[in-house]
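Reminder to self: tokens first, then the designed residues, so the page reads top to bottom the way the pipeline ran.
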């Protein structure tokens, strides 16, 4: 370790002996008088609470897909030790996924102004010269690089996915999953290195006094060891109160135009950033969908009179027409649909056959899992595996009707799965085969 530190120091000396590059590397380039440890720490404190919540709800979202059931559900098959926390996703409370994913997406959008403000406040550090002075500083700068790069990557890919505008190569789930772990590791290292300095900076100024100080009373902070305070500050054009207020107003605005897609009710009309129509129509089937039947290749002949449901289990398959299914004892459940993009519906009133009853019909009343297959042409989410606890929940249905009417084609006619607390994409539509397994 001592040898490595010596090599880093020698390398730093060679770089430091070179002339300082022009532009942002020069100490007098950054002149904002409000930039300094206190303002940086205020934004950092918000992120210190917000980012862990966003990370935890994100990994919970991954667990909700029950990736342990096999490759059909596992969007990140090479996760290795990063999947150490996975558990059997529960079905109670039935709104669990709606809450966790809605919070994840909404918080991610709301924190964007804070993240940008934090990056603005520390940008002089990204241009320090020489870039390396010691092994400890090298570690800190590496963590900063991973923190900034990982943060930008996670926020950009997440927001693009929410808006159904994903343009990055590879699977969103895999890239976002690995990016999240890189980001949170860098975040933990950075907080460990900077927590003491942050607390000292926050104590250096009274928050309420600072929020009462206008532009005329704004003065630069004392010089700091990190070089955030400019050596030649310009005259203030904005107070720290103005900077905090502007960032807070931006976050509040994003909350208003985003949260309604998860909360619903009257706020749904304000969700201008929602990726789906805020007014999906009227009538029993007038609620949001993820993909239309036409967009995934569902044609009328695939779900017409010749359609049959196959139920496989311990004995010979049971083949049933839709009329036969409708003649069987039916049950109801009031459940929402909640999707990974953060949007959700209000509770819809579904009617159909309990998965538990179909498991008993297959000869496996204590089935440990079921493979649900759609008539949808092969592709992502054309089939899914559900756990035993999902099968046995009395509200888990093979739904045939919704809100008193037959399912529309876009909502999965002639039959679809609806399971409490299940990600929307795992509530498979246009089901034609159920294979129960021990």
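Designed residues (438 positions):
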């Amino acid at each position: 370790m001592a040898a490595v530190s010596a090599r880093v120091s020698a390398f730093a000396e060679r770089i430091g002996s070179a002339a300082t590059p022009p532009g942002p590397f020069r100490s007098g380039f950054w002149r904002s008088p409000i930039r300094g440890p206190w303002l940086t720490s205020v934004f950092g404190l918000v992120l210190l609470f917000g980012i862990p919540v966003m990370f935890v709800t994100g990994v919970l979202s991954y667990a909700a897909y029950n990736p342990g059931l096999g490759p059909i559900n596992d969007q990140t098959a090479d996760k290795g030790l990063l999947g150490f926390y996975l558990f059997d996703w529960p079905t109670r409370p039935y709104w669990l996924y709606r809450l966790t994913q809605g919070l994840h997406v909404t918080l991610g959008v709301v924190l964007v102004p804070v993240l940008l403000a934090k990056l603005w406040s520390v940008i002089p550090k990204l241009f320090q010269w020489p870039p390396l002075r010691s092994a400890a500083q090298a570690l800190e700068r590496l963590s900063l690089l991973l923190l900034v790069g990982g943060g930008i990557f996670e926020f950009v890919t997440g927001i693009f996915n929410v808006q159904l505008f994903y343009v990055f190569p590879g699977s969103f789930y895999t890239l976002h999953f690995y990016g999240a772990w890189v980001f949170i590791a860098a975040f933990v290292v950075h907080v460990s290195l900077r927590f003491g300095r942050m607390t000292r900076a926050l104590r250096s100024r009274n928050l309420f006094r600072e929020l009462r100080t206008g532009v005329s009373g704004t003065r630069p902070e004392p010089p700091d060891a990190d070089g955030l305070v400019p050596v030649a500050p310009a005259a203030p054009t904005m107070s720290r109160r103005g900077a905090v207020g502007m960032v807070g107003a931006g976050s509040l605005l994003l909350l208003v135009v985003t949260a309604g897609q998860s909360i619903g009710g009257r706020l749904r009309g304000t969700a201008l950033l929602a990726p789906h129509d805020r007014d999906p129509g009227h009538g029993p089937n007038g609620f949001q969908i993820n993909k239309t039947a036409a967009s995934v290749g569902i044609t009328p002949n695939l779900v017409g009179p010749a359609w049959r449901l196959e139920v496989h289990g311990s004995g010979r398959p049971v083949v049933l027409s839709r009329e036969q299914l409708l003649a069987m004892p039916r049950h109801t459940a009031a459940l929402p649909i909640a999707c990974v993009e953060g949007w959700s519906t209000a509770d819809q009133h579904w009617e159909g056959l309990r998965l538990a009853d179909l498991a008993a019909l297959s000869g496996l009343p204590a089935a440990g899992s079921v493979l649900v297959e759609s008539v949808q042409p092969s592709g992502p989410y054309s089939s899914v595996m559900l756990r035993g606890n999902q099968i046995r929940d009395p509200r888990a249905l093979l739904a045939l009707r919704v809100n008193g009417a037959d399912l529309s084609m876009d909502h999965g006619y002639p039959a679809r799965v609806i399971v409490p607390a299940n990600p929307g994409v795992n509530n498979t539509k246009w089901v034609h085969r159920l294979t129960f397994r021990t």
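The beta strands are 309-312, 318-320, 331-335, 348-354, 369-374, 383-387, 397-402, 405-406, 416-418, 431-437.
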